[in-house]
Amino acid sequence: MEDDDILDTVDTPDSPDSPQPRPQSLMLAFFGNHVLEEADDLCVYSGSIIDVLGRVGVGEQAVRSTLTRMVNRGLLRRQREGRRMYFGLTPQAKLVLHDGRTRIWQGAVNDDWDGSWTLLGFSFPDSWKRQRHDLRSRLTWSGFGALYSGLWIAPGNVDVAPVVSELGLTTHVKIFHARADGTTDIELMIRDTWDLESIAARYVTFDKRWTALLGADPGGDPIGTRLRLVSEWLWTIRTDPRLPARHLPPAWPARPAQETFRRLAEETAAPARRMAAELLDTAALR
Protein backbone atom coordinates (compact mmCIF):
# COMPACT_ATOMS: atom_id res chain seq x y z
CA MET A 1 0.00 0.00 0.00
CA GLU A 2 2.98 2.30 0.34
CA ASP A 3 4.89 4.06 -2.41
CA ASP A 4 6.67 6.88 -0.68
CA ASP A 5 3.88 6.70 0.55
CA ILE A 6 0.16 6.53 1.38
CA LEU A 7 1.04 7.33 4.96
CA ASP A 8 2.99 10.34 3.75
CA THR A 9 -0.27 11.68 2.37
CA VAL A 10 -1.06 12.86 5.86
CA ASP A 11 2.48 13.88 6.68
CA THR A 12 4.10 17.27 6.30
CA PRO A 13 7.42 18.96 7.02
CA ASP A 14 8.60 18.46 10.57
CA SER A 15 8.22 22.08 11.70
CA PRO A 16 5.26 22.23 14.10
CA ASP A 17 4.84 25.97 13.46
CA SER A 18 3.84 25.80 9.80
CA PRO A 19 1.89 22.70 8.83
CA GLN A 20 1.53 22.69 5.06
CA PRO A 21 -0.43 19.58 4.01
CA ARG A 22 0.72 18.02 0.78
CA PRO A 23 -1.60 18.08 -2.24
CA GLN A 24 -2.31 14.35 -1.89
CA SER A 25 -3.25 14.81 1.76
CA LEU A 26 -5.68 17.56 0.78
CA MET A 27 -6.98 15.43 -2.08
CA LEU A 28 -7.77 12.53 0.24
CA ALA A 29 -9.39 14.90 2.73
CA PHE A 30 -11.51 16.29 -0.11
CA PHE A 31 -12.69 12.83 -1.17
CA GLY A 32 -13.23 11.84 2.45
CA ASN A 33 -15.38 14.89 3.13
CA HIS A 34 -17.39 15.04 -0.08
CA VAL A 35 -17.46 11.53 -1.52
CA LEU A 36 -16.98 8.95 1.22
CA GLU A 37 -19.20 10.86 3.65
CA GLU A 38 -21.94 11.36 1.07
CA ALA A 39 -22.02 8.37 -1.29
CA ASP A 40 -18.81 6.53 -2.06
CA ASP A 41 -20.08 5.48 -5.50
CA LEU A 42 -19.70 9.04 -6.80
CA CYS A 43 -16.98 10.45 -9.01
CA VAL A 44 -16.10 14.15 -9.27
CA TYR A 45 -15.25 16.25 -12.31
CA SER A 46 -11.59 17.28 -12.39
CA GLY A 47 -12.56 20.93 -12.83
CA SER A 48 -14.50 20.84 -9.56
CA ILE A 49 -11.50 19.33 -7.77
CA ILE A 50 -9.22 22.03 -9.23
CA ASP A 51 -11.65 24.70 -7.99
CA VAL A 52 -11.86 23.39 -4.43
CA LEU A 53 -8.15 22.66 -3.95
CA GLY A 54 -7.33 26.05 -5.43
CA ARG A 55 -9.14 27.53 -2.44
CA VAL A 56 -6.46 26.03 -0.16
CA GLY A 57 -3.51 27.10 -2.26
CA VAL A 58 -2.97 24.13 -4.59
CA GLY A 59 -2.43 25.18 -8.19
CA GLU A 60 -4.08 23.55 -11.20
CA GLN A 61 -0.92 21.81 -12.41
CA ALA A 62 -0.28 20.38 -8.93
CA VAL A 63 -3.86 19.10 -8.77
CA ARG A 64 -3.62 17.43 -12.17
CA SER A 65 -0.28 15.78 -11.40
CA THR A 66 -1.59 14.61 -8.02
CA LEU A 67 -4.67 13.08 -9.65
CA THR A 68 -2.48 11.23 -12.15
CA ARG A 69 -0.14 10.01 -9.42
CA MET A 70 -3.04 8.79 -7.29
CA VAL A 71 -4.52 6.92 -10.26
CA ASN A 72 -1.15 5.26 -10.83
CA ARG A 73 -0.98 4.29 -7.15
CA GLY A 74 -4.39 2.68 -7.26
CA LEU A 75 -6.09 5.27 -5.06
CA LEU A 76 -8.32 6.87 -7.68
CA ARG A 77 -9.97 5.71 -10.89
CA ARG A 78 -10.79 7.76 -13.98
CA GLN A 79 -14.13 7.85 -15.72
CA ARG A 80 -14.91 9.84 -18.85
CA GLU A 81 -18.30 11.48 -19.25
CA GLY A 82 -18.48 13.11 -22.66
CA ARG A 83 -15.51 15.48 -22.90
CA ARG A 84 -15.03 15.63 -19.13
CA MET A 85 -12.87 13.46 -16.90
CA TYR A 86 -14.18 12.38 -13.50
CA PHE A 87 -12.35 10.73 -10.61
CA GLY A 88 -13.69 8.28 -8.02
CA LEU A 89 -12.38 6.20 -5.15
CA THR A 90 -10.91 2.72 -5.51
CA PRO A 91 -11.47 0.06 -2.81
CA GLN A 92 -7.91 0.70 -1.64
CA ALA A 93 -8.59 4.41 -1.18
CA LYS A 94 -11.78 3.66 0.74
CA LEU A 95 -9.78 1.55 3.19
CA VAL A 96 -7.30 4.40 3.68
CA LEU A 97 -10.11 6.92 4.20
CA HIS A 98 -12.08 4.70 6.59
CA ASP A 99 -8.90 4.27 8.64
CA GLY A 100 -8.34 8.02 8.64
CA ARG A 101 -11.94 8.66 9.67
CA THR A 102 -11.53 6.26 12.59
CA ARG A 103 -8.40 8.07 13.71
CA ILE A 104 -10.11 11.45 13.43
CA TRP A 105 -13.16 10.59 15.51
CA GLN A 106 -11.95 8.02 18.04
CA GLY A 107 -10.53 10.82 20.17
CA ALA A 108 -6.99 12.01 20.80
CA VAL A 109 -7.23 11.55 24.56
CA ASN A 110 -7.02 8.00 25.95
CA ASP A 111 -8.87 8.06 29.27
CA ASP A 112 -9.91 4.40 29.27
CA TRP A 113 -6.62 2.51 28.88
CA ASP A 114 -6.90 -0.97 30.41
CA GLY A 115 -3.21 -1.38 31.26
CA SER A 116 -2.40 -3.66 28.31
CA TRP A 117 0.29 -3.24 25.67
CA THR A 118 0.84 -4.69 22.21
CA LEU A 119 4.45 -5.62 21.46
CA LEU A 120 5.87 -6.35 18.03
CA GLY A 121 9.36 -7.74 17.48
CA PHE A 122 11.22 -8.12 14.19
CA SER A 123 14.68 -8.80 12.83
CA PHE A 124 15.40 -8.24 9.15
CA PRO A 125 18.53 -8.73 7.02
CA ASP A 126 20.57 -5.54 6.59
CA SER A 127 19.58 -5.44 2.92
CA TRP A 128 15.87 -5.12 3.76
CA LYS A 129 15.90 -1.35 4.04
CA ARG A 130 12.63 -0.83 2.21
CA GLN A 131 10.79 -3.47 4.24
CA ARG A 132 12.11 -1.93 7.45
CA HIS A 133 11.03 1.56 6.36
CA ASP A 134 7.57 0.36 5.33
CA LEU A 135 6.98 -1.48 8.59
CA ARG A 136 8.19 1.38 10.76
CA SER A 137 6.00 3.86 8.87
CA ARG A 138 2.92 1.70 9.29
CA LEU A 139 3.70 1.01 12.94
CA THR A 140 4.03 4.73 13.66
CA TRP A 141 0.61 5.37 12.08
CA SER A 142 -0.81 2.49 14.14
CA GLY A 143 0.37 4.03 17.41
CA PHE A 144 3.62 2.15 17.99
CA GLY A 145 6.91 3.52 19.25
CA ALA A 146 10.37 1.94 19.27
CA LEU A 147 11.04 0.56 22.74
CA TYR A 148 14.25 -0.87 21.29
CA SER A 149 15.45 -1.05 17.68
CA GLY A 150 13.62 -4.30 16.88
CA LEU A 151 10.92 -4.14 19.55
CA TRP A 152 7.99 -1.77 19.12
CA ILE A 153 5.17 -1.14 21.57
CA ALA A 154 1.70 0.44 21.56
CA PRO A 155 -0.86 1.00 24.31
CA GLY A 156 -3.88 -1.29 24.31
CA ASN A 157 -4.77 -4.30 22.23
CA VAL A 158 -3.85 -3.26 18.68
CA ASP A 159 -4.81 -5.54 15.80
CA VAL A 160 -1.60 -5.02 13.84
CA ALA A 161 -1.51 -8.47 12.19
CA PRO A 162 -3.33 -7.27 9.01
CA VAL A 163 -0.70 -4.56 8.54
CA VAL A 164 2.12 -7.07 8.86
CA SER A 165 0.37 -9.49 6.49
CA GLU A 166 -0.25 -6.78 3.92
CA LEU A 167 3.47 -6.01 3.86
CA GLY A 168 4.29 -9.70 3.42
CA LEU A 169 6.25 -9.86 6.67
CA THR A 170 4.20 -12.27 8.77
CA THR A 171 6.95 -14.90 9.02
CA HIS A 172 9.49 -12.29 10.14
CA VAL A 173 7.43 -10.61 12.88
CA LYS A 174 6.27 -11.72 16.33
CA ILE A 175 3.32 -10.06 18.06
CA PHE A 176 2.52 -10.22 21.79
CA HIS A 177 -0.10 -8.76 24.12
CA ALA A 178 1.11 -8.16 27.67
CA ARG A 179 1.05 -6.06 30.82
CA ALA A 180 4.01 -4.32 32.40
CA ASP A 181 5.49 -5.70 35.59
CA GLY A 182 5.04 -3.55 38.67
CA THR A 183 8.74 -2.67 38.68
CA THR A 184 8.45 -0.96 35.29
CA ASP A 185 8.26 2.82 35.40
CA ILE A 186 5.62 3.36 32.71
CA GLU A 187 5.95 7.14 32.61
CA LEU A 188 9.71 6.86 32.10
CA MET A 189 9.17 4.21 29.42
CA ILE A 190 6.75 6.50 27.60
CA ARG A 191 9.18 9.42 27.71
CA ASP A 192 11.98 7.22 26.39
CA THR A 193 9.88 5.72 23.60
CA TRP A 194 7.93 8.69 22.24
CA ASP A 195 8.88 12.32 21.61
CA LEU A 196 6.26 13.87 23.87
CA GLU A 197 7.48 17.42 23.29
CA SER A 198 7.00 17.12 19.54
CA ILE A 199 3.56 15.53 19.91
CA ALA A 200 2.47 18.22 22.37
CA ALA A 201 3.80 21.00 20.12
CA ARG A 202 1.57 19.83 17.29
CA TYR A 203 -1.51 20.09 19.49
CA VAL A 204 -0.54 23.52 20.80
CA THR A 205 0.05 24.76 17.24
CA PHE A 206 -3.29 23.42 16.04
CA ASP A 207 -5.20 24.95 18.94
CA LYS A 208 -3.58 28.36 18.48
CA ARG A 209 -4.30 28.36 14.76
CA TRP A 210 -7.96 27.37 15.02
CA THR A 211 -9.36 28.61 18.36
CA ALA A 212 -9.94 32.10 16.96
CA LEU A 213 -12.39 30.67 14.42
CA LEU A 214 -14.69 29.09 17.02
CA GLY A 215 -18.16 30.55 16.62
CA ALA A 216 -17.03 32.70 13.68
CA ASP A 217 -18.76 32.82 10.31
CA PRO A 218 -16.73 30.70 7.87
CA GLY A 219 -17.44 33.41 5.33
CA GLY A 220 -17.69 32.65 1.67
CA ASP A 221 -15.48 29.57 1.75
CA PRO A 222 -16.67 26.96 4.26
CA ILE A 223 -15.55 24.12 1.98
CA GLY A 224 -11.96 25.39 1.98
CA THR A 225 -12.02 26.04 5.72
CA ARG A 226 -13.20 22.52 6.47
CA LEU A 227 -10.66 21.00 4.09
CA ARG A 228 -7.80 22.78 5.85
CA LEU A 229 -9.24 21.88 9.26
CA VAL A 230 -9.43 18.14 8.59
CA SER A 231 -6.05 18.02 6.85
CA GLU A 232 -4.29 19.84 9.68
CA TRP A 233 -5.98 17.68 12.31
CA LEU A 234 -4.77 14.54 10.55
CA TRP A 235 -1.28 16.02 10.47
CA THR A 236 -1.57 16.82 14.16
CA ILE A 237 -2.62 13.34 15.28
CA ARG A 238 -0.40 11.42 12.86
CA THR A 239 2.36 10.71 15.37
CA ASP A 240 0.17 10.53 18.49
CA PRO A 241 -0.22 6.92 19.70
CA ARG A 242 -3.05 7.89 22.09
CA LEU A 243 -0.94 7.22 25.16
CA PRO A 244 -2.79 6.63 28.45
CA ALA A 245 -3.77 10.03 29.81
CA ARG A 246 -2.90 9.13 33.41
CA HIS A 247 0.74 8.64 32.43
CA LEU A 248 1.12 11.89 30.51
CA PRO A 249 2.22 15.32 31.78
CA PRO A 250 -0.47 17.45 33.48
CA ALA A 251 -2.61 19.62 31.19
CA TRP A 252 -1.80 17.48 28.14
CA PRO A 253 -2.67 19.78 25.18
CA ALA A 254 -4.46 17.11 23.16
CA ARG A 255 -7.62 17.67 25.18
CA PRO A 256 -8.28 21.35 24.33
CA ALA A 257 -7.08 20.83 20.75
CA GLN A 258 -9.51 17.96 20.31
CA GLU A 259 -12.36 20.06 21.65
CA THR A 260 -11.47 22.86 19.24
CA PHE A 261 -11.39 20.47 16.30
CA ARG A 262 -14.70 18.83 17.14
CA ARG A 263 -16.52 22.12 17.63
CA LEU A 264 -15.18 23.54 14.36
CA ALA A 265 -15.93 20.32 12.51
CA GLU A 266 -19.53 20.55 13.69
CA GLU A 267 -19.78 24.25 12.81
CA THR A 268 -18.43 23.81 9.29
CA ALA A 269 -20.15 20.53 8.35
CA ALA A 270 -23.49 21.88 7.10
CA PRO A 271 -22.15 25.01 5.33
CA ALA A 272 -19.45 22.95 3.57
CA ARG A 273 -22.01 20.35 2.51
CA ARG A 274 -24.31 23.02 1.06
CA MET A 275 -21.44 24.64 -0.79
CA ALA A 276 -20.26 21.29 -2.15
CA ALA A 277 -23.75 20.61 -3.50
CA GLU A 278 -23.55 23.88 -5.43
CA LEU A 279 -19.94 23.60 -6.64
CA LEU A 280 -19.26 19.95 -7.37
CA ASP A 281 -20.09 18.35 -10.69
CA THR A 282 -20.51 14.65 -9.86
CA ALA A 283 -21.58 11.47 -11.63
CA ALA A 284 -22.35 7.92 -10.59
CA LEU A 285 -19.24 5.75 -10.55
CA ARG A 286 -19.64 2.89 -13.02
Task: Label this structure with key terms.
disordered N terminus, alpha+beta, 286 residues, 8 strands
What do these coordinates show?
The protein has 286 residues and is of the alpha+beta class. Residues 1-18 have low confidence and may be disordered. It is globular, with a radius of gyration of 20 Å. The chain contains 10 helices and 8 strands. Strand 2 (76-81) and strand 3 (84-89) form a beta hairpin. Strands 2-3-1-8 form a 4-stranded antiparallel beta sheet. Strands 5-6-4-7 form a 4-stranded antiparallel beta sheet, covered by helices on one side.
Question: How do you describe this structure in short?
Answer:
The protein is an alpha+beta fold and 286 residues long.
In angstroms, what separates the terminal alpha carbons? 24 Å
SSE sequence, one letter per element: HEHHEEHEHEEHEHHHHE
| Mean of pLDDT | 88
Helices and strands: which structural class? alpha+beta
Lateral strand order in the biggest sheet: 2-3-1-8
Quaternary form: single chain
Radius of gyration over C-alpha positions, nearest whole angstrom:
20 Å
Q: Major β-sheet, in short? A: 4 strands, antiparallel
Number of helices: 10
**Number of E strands:** 8
Structural shape: globular
Which runs of at least 5 residues are low in confidence (pLDDT < 50)?
1-18
How much helix is in the residues?
Answer: 40-55%
**Beta-strand percentage?**
5-15%
